[in-house]
Amino acid sequence: MTQALDTMDAVAFGHMLRGVGVNILTRDAAALAAFLTEVFGVSAHQVSPDFAIIVHDGAYIQLHGDATYGKHPLLGLVPETPPRGAGMQIFLFGIDPDAAAARAEAAGGMVIEQPADKPHGLRECTILAPEGQAFSPAVAI
Fold this sequence. Notes:
The protein is of the alpha/beta class. The protein has a single domain, classed as 2,3-Dihydroxybiphenyl 1,2-Dioxygenase, domain 1. The chain has a 4-stranded mixed β-sheet. A 4-stranded mixed β-sheet has the order 5-8-7-6, covered by helices on one side.
């Protein structure tokens, strides 16, 4: 299915979405997609400066360049300077937080919470992408 994502048109993609959807606004979808693939090992499809589909364990995250949200009222709420996404934490379950944290800085990210075992049975960390969105890889302990 993921190979089909590279050639699927917007209507077909929209019709296949189910459950919860996550859209992340970014200045450069291609740059954020590169960061996510390098640090977390997710797959990226239809990558351009304006759009990308990120797939992790069957879940989809859509990256939208600011220009694609030109008439959407949400764009007016996004700060001009990072951090973007303040108050939102996106968990990526099944990704080794120690390995992701080790790759984050070289990819332009910042580890704001070092990998640690948590009382709720997960080992996790929190990594800010270059624009400030918070991603937390986590595995069961």
